[in-house]
Amino acid sequence: MTKGPKKPATPTKTYAKAPLSVDDALSHLWRRRLMIDDRPANARVMRSIGYFRLHVYMRRFQNPATKYSWPRTRFKDIVELYEFDRRLRAVTMDVTERVEVALRSALSTPIALTHGSHWYADRSLYRNLRGYASALAQISRECDKKKGLALTHYHETYAVPDLPPVWLVCEHLTLGALSRLFEALSISHRKTAGRHGWPDIPDPLLVSWLHSLTDLRNACAHHSRIWNAKFSVSAPQQPKSTALARYAAGMHQNWTYYARAVMIKALLDLMGYGGEWRESLKTTLASCRHVDAAAHLGFPRGWEIAPAWV
């Protein structure tokens, strides 16, 4: 008989830890044998970032059994690792923007050429009623709460239809909303949109990749940790087609950042920006001596000369 998942244990403890002031936090770390190399500067960093956010990066420099810092570890080392993670989020957000803009173009142009400027309101273009209703409700909400010159001009100039044309709609949708709109389309219209930007990527695979990219983008936008993180939500599917075979091996460990970096490379190669992404990653990974790209991010040795990256 197959056993179901275990029920979570009922908590019994009461949380009673007091918050630490900046000075107390630095003194606590000093007692844990961390070198406080420049106390005024270290205090400014602790004040602006916070002990809790820095704590996860401290573990890189601690003996896991004793929680004491390894010999000669400085507070500056922790900050360097934190700053690396911030740079990695920044370069990831930069390339995500390229994919998001391309998806807006894919949804606003090719289908409109056949079905007009307000095709998104046509029920027949969707796979089912639920997807249609969800997409239209999302579009209505976004266009109602997000104002701007273009939307204001439309509403002041045109009485019908109530909602603006698709190219204006797409400019106001988030990557998550765009990916859900893409998924809701019927297969034939999804293929029309997908082939506009990514002709070699089958539309079911593109749906998976866009959802995965959305979650990665949200993690970056909300300043979540990317370094040494396991991504358990929206794992990107491995490609199976011959045209994408060179990317498949790199996406085997789909919980890693590296699998998502390869996924982004495949998307960008068809847009002409794949080489730029490779160089950004090389520069970022080389910028911090405390980062083990294999252990912390899933990058194999010699990744930059693997088939996916050349």
Question: What report would you give on this structure?
Answer:
This protein is mainly alpha-helical and 310 residues long. Helix content is 56%, strand content 0%. The protein is built from 15 helices and no strands. The protein has helices at 22-31, 39-49, 51-58, 75-108, 110-115, 129-145, 149-157, 166-171, 175-184, 187-197, 203-221, 245-248, 257-269, 274-285, 293-297. α4 (75-108) packs across α10 (187-197), α4 packs across α11 (203-221) and α13 (257-269) runs antiparallel to α14. The chain is globular. The protein starts with 21 loop residues before the first helix and ends in a 13-residue tail after the last helix. The relative contact order is 0.10. The model has no long low-confidence stretch (mean pLDDT 94).
Tell me what portion of residues adopts beta-strand conformation: under 5%
Number of strands: 0
Please state the overall shape, judged from the principal axes of the Cα atoms. globular
Summarize the helix and strand pattern as letters. Answer: HHHHHHHHHHHHHHH
Task: Kindly state the percentage of residues in helix.
Answer: 55-70%
* Computed Rg: 24 Å
Sketch the major β-sheet. Answer: none
Mean pLDDT: 94
**Terminal Cα separation, in Å?**
49 Å
Q: Low-confidence parts, pLDDT < 50 over ≥5 residues?
A: none
Number of helices: 15
Backbone structural class: mainly alpha
Q: In oligomeric terms, what are we looking at?
A: single chain
